[in-house]
Amino acid sequence: MATKEECDQTLEREASLQPPRKYQVLLHNDHYTTWEFVIKVLERIFHKNQTEAERITYSVHHRGVGVCGEYTREIAQTKVLQVHSTAKANGFPLRCSMKEV
Prior knowledge:
Strand order of the largest sheet: 2-1-3
Order of helices and strands: HEHHEHE
Number of helices: 4
Distance between the termini: 42 Å
Helix content: 40-55%
Number of strands: 3
Largest sheet: 3 strands, antiparallel
Oligomer: single chain
Mean pLDDT: 93
Structural class: alpha+beta
Low-confidence stretches: none
CATH architecture: 2-Layer Sandwich
Strand content: 15-25%
Shape: elongated
């Protein structure tokens, strides 16, 4: 059984732990990537349904940027790399970035 001191130390450590920082993953508009390709990226990489994918694509097209979701740093980095890799493989210049929330 843990001593009172060990329990206090454990509680102190747990209280000092912070949740991981979140990052928004953003898609950026360009004049070459097709609407259909952006929809597919959002559905396959970000697991968005048709309605969500269309809403984000509309934002990308009309506002220049669309938020795909919020993730921990490592997951956000992976999503950005997946978008760039998929776009390059399909001949599109689609850009994706991340920013801390």
